[in-house]
Amino acid sequence: MSRPPRWTGDSVTGSPRPVLSIRNAHVTFSSRRRNSAAVRAVDGVSLDVLPGEVVALVGESGCGKTTLIRSVVGLEPLSAGSIECDGNNVTGARASLRKVRRSAQMIFQDPSGALNPRHTVYETVAEGIRIHKMRGVEPELVADALSRAGLRPPAQFMPRYSHELSGGQRQRVLIAGAIALNPRVLLADEPVASLDASIRGEILALMRSLVDNEGISIVAVTHDLGLAWNIADRIAVMYLGRIVEVGNAEQVLSHPQHPYTKALLSVVPETARVEQQILVGETPDPSKIPAGCRFHPRCPVVASGEAERLGILRRCTGVDVELVLRGSNHSAACHALP
Amino acid sequence: MNVLELIDLSVTYRTERGEVPAVRGVNLTIAPGETVGLAGESGCGKSTIASAVLRLLPASTVVTGDVLLNGENVYSMSPGRLRAVRWNDAAIVFQGALHSLNPVQRVGAQISEAIELHTTLNQAEARRRVIDLLERVGLPSERARSYPHQLSGGQRQRVLIALALACEPTLLIADEPTTALDVMVQAQVLELLAELQRDRGLALLFITHDLSVITSTCERLAVMYAGRIVEDGPSHDVFGNPAHPYARALTQAFPTIGDHDSRMNPGGLAGDPPNPADLPTGCPFHPRCDVAIDECVTTDVGLRQVFLGRSAACVHVASTEVDR
Q: Which residues in chain B are closer than 8 Å to A271, comparing Cβ atoms?
């Protein structure tokens, strides 16, 4: 397998063609009850994923991160915008969606729930190969996928059922099923949240090796900023259906610009810590997105009176804010930034 | 007097496939107002300990050793005394806030039920107490009239904490109280627990697989592996400078953001946790241990003192057995 050049993340011009391109995507769920507002789960997201990079999509539950990756494979219909994966349009003809569903593979969270308890490992991995009529000898394709996912020797795992596997092995089976189709992108929803601490590292190392050795791209949805630090090239922070900060993972995590990112980082439990900024209130409701900057009701810059001192309070509460480039490969959407 | 004292506690489940030793000789004490974290992977026996403290295990389970709650042996209590001790002396916040509440009863009624059954307060007084408790955990009093499904995950977790505090226990056992929660809500719940502990002198036994959560909440940390405590000491010391190779692997599993050693280099531990029904010989950690020597295959060393207040069960720790 040829290895595409690693994207270094600092060239805006001349960067390779993205393997996944999300343009102004909106996913809106209308409410069944009359007079109640529609839920704007994804509210205008644009994101390019380049070949051979890991993008971590982080945010609280309800921020739309899972909905966004589900819409990539057509599991949630787009109400506006477009998504293109490996040259095929998700909203296009059936044949084009089918191609997307081969080149972009979902890895769902909770491997115990995602595996059919009555299927052997072989059947689980072979299912996708049959559906997509992959060229080659089926047992060889299955064996290859299992061994690329670190289940070696593959013959030993093929006849087993999911209850005979450990948590880490189950997650590897799911990954094997996905990479059996030689996808360009893996969409992983909380890939290690349900795993034990010691196994977490192994699975993350496997994901990183797929990127480095096979040139696969990964979009990892997570609320775990440590995961982003461990394996991500880039990080996109979502809040109420929008990306509020995006850029080189190291830069965003070491020098966060958006007050929401700063707050998220401050509550990561660690021994050496900065002063915590615990945002009050529950995760906000995507059926009632506030006017102006959608973060302003929980924003520490507004609450501390700093926004008023800076003379931007009326913009914070009244004017929606777009992502603005803050440096090479680092953007944030905040009125308070100079 | 210690709030909780576990003396050589062993718990063996009897299953169709034979006996499963889940906890194998654990010694642990918690002083009044002390916060102790118990960490380990699934199957290491940490949740079994939570249930063993209040005798909540199935009747067929074999429990040996002693559990002293405020000096009184839980396993020799009469049924009436045991009933009085549950909630009043020690209460548990179970994991999975979603499943622990009755879905068809208002949360206020669920809290006041516990108060009415376990204290001498009458219904009206119990209701006032409910309002009080909800406010203390940061929920508006109207929430008493909500059903569990009308609350978010963080709110439900707060209700469970209010429920556990209903009868003013001296010991609160929290079993993975924040595992299902978002980072921000987790921070809110941890802050609440710290506040309650500070203001009311509550002793806290915090059970989780997430070492980083324990270090930010607990003064002391005990790491469990295969039914035993393998390292015990002040949490910042253990986290910052673990003596047992298993504790070291666990701390590396949680990267410190900004630490360049872990950037693009996720730490962890190869292999899977052992099956409690079929433990390896000698030190049960030896098959996964990168510093194991021949002796580890045959001999399981007990906890040894690293220095005062700090012990680890590893052959590489200088051999002064801990005096119990």
A: 212, 215-216, 236, 239-240, 256
